[in-house]
């Protein structure tokens, strides 16, 4: 056999193996990205299930709003936890479908209950005060 033909066949086989290796690497990177997002979701879920945050969300949703210092602190903690969710979704660190499947109702109820309070605070602190919870609410409402 001619050395030119052998060299050409070797080059073709090498090119094919590089193509298959590249395709495999791309699929692996996609799986790693999915796994990373799922890990981030588990971490944010554990954060949201911390006793202090969970109690603040429950009290905010359950209790009648009387604007006490304790209620303001609970509301602040609950809204901050939702802002963390928003930043993770916005920066594509978690799958929004996972987050919304778990927290959609809570987000919607919280925003609808406290929209007047937040809008009043915006008059004092600026139009972007707690904007993330409103954006998260809009995202949750679209998913219904």
What is the structure about, briefly put?
By secondary structure, the chain is mainly alpha-helical. It contains five helices and no strands.
List the helices and strands and how they pair.
Elements: H1 3-48, H2 51-62, H3 69-90, H4 96-125, H5 131-142
Helix pairs in contact: 1-3, 2-3, 3-5, 4-5
Features:
mainly alpha; 85% helix; rod-shaped
Question: How would you characterize the overall build of this protein?
Answer:
With 144 residues, this protein is an all-alpha fold. The chain has one domain (36-142). 85% of the residues lie in helices and 0% in strands. The mean pLDDT is 88.
Mean pLDDT: 88
* Shape call: rod-shaped
Query: Radius of gyration from the CA trace?
Result: 25 Å
How many distinct folded domains? 1
Q: How would you sum up the major sheet?
A: none
Regions with little confidence, pLDDT below 50 for 5+ residues: none
Q: Proportion of β residues?
A: under 5%
* Strands, count: 0
Number of helical segments?
5
CA-CA gap between termini: 68 Å
Order of helices and strands: HHHHH
Give me the secondary-structure category: mainly alpha
Helix content: over 70%
């Amino acid at each position: 056999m001619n050395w030119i033909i052998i060299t050409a066949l070797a080059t073709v086989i090498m090119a094919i193996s590089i193509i298959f290796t590249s395709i495999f690497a791309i699929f692996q990177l996609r799986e790693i990205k999915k796994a990373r997002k799922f890990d981030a979701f588990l971490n944010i879920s554990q954060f949201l299930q911390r006793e202090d945050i969970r109690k603040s969300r429950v009290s905010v949703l359950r209790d009648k709003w009387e604007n006490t210092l304790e209620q303001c602190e609970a509301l602040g903690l609950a809204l901050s936890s939702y802002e963390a969710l928003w930043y993770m979704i916005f920066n594509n660190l978690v799958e929004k479908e996972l987050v919304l499947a778990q927290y959609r109702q809570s987000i919607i109820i919280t925003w609808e209950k406290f929209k007047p309070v937040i809008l009043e605070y915006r008059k004092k602190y600026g139009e972007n005060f707690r904007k993330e919870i409103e954006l998260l609410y809009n995202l949750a409402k679209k998913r219904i």
